[in-house]
Amino acid sequence: MESLPEEIAEASKPIGSPTTTSDALAPTIFDHQRGEENELAGTQTTNDPIADDAWEDRPFMVVRIHSKPRTTHFDPTECSDPPPVAVDCIDVVRQMVTDLENEDEKIVDDVWDGTSACRRPLSESWLGEARFPKLWISPPGYHVVDGRLVRKQTTARPPDIWPEMWQAMSKRQREQAISRWSKRAGCHQGCPRSSRYHRRYSWP
């Protein structure tokens, strides 16, 4: 039986001689995959510039996207670029969604008034977004909840919850919703924009 050329070449090499590149096996699909993974890893380690904070116009709210770490609450009047709607068309209530581990600071519901008091610091720097509902003109006897007209009623239901959601809540969930809204309502005391708050959110 004749030997293959590769076997002849291998047998003619002195014992212990190093293997050259030409002697190595041809690259396989796995080698190509490893190469692509290394290239991808190289691109992932590149320090891309951090995007600037920016406004986002959503159907029922305007949102400030915070891509750069910050330590304080966000006030729409503090940034150089104006919001996508006039400030007078933004509600006084505010919700901040952060990446903090502190349970009390993951979602912060309060009000803003354009003063330094509404820019108080959090426990540490955070990323996330600040949400501000848009103001809507509603007929007498109604107010707008997430873009929908809801009839004003004498009820324990907080004015930021749809009636059917309130009906589906358990007793514990209702108590938590009332407590959350009471804390938010208490934040407006002494606020220069409190008269508008009272007109919109007289509750119960």
Description:
By secondary structure, the protein is an alpha+beta fold. It folds into two domains: 50-135, no CATH class; 140-190 and 198-204, no CATH class. The protein is built from six helices and seven strands, in the order ααβββαββββααα. The chain has helices spanning 5-12, 29-44, 103-106, 163-168, 171-186, 194-200, and strands at residues 54-58, 61-72, 93-98, 107-111, 121-133, 142-145, 148-151. It has a five-stranded antiparallel β-sheet. A two-stranded antiparallel sheet has the order 6-7.
* Fraction of residues in H or I helices: 25-40%
Total count of helical runs of at least 4 residues: 6
User: Which consecutive residue ranges, at least 5 long each, have pLDDT under 50?
Assistant: 21-25, 194-204
Structural class: alpha+beta
Overall morphology: extended
For the record, give the distance between the C-alpha atoms at the N and C termini, rounded to a whole number. 99 Å
Quaternary status of these chains?
Answer: single chain
Task: Please indicate the percent range of residues in DSSP E strands (runs of 2 or more).
Answer: 15-25%
- Main beta sheet strand tally, sense and closure: 5 strands, antiparallel
Number of domains: 2
Instruction: Identify the strand order in the major beta sheet.
Output: 1-2-5-3-4
pLDDT averaged over residues: 77
The number of distinct β-strands equals 7
| SSE pattern, N- to C-terminal | HHEEEHEEEEHHH
Radius of gyration from CA coordinates = 31 Å
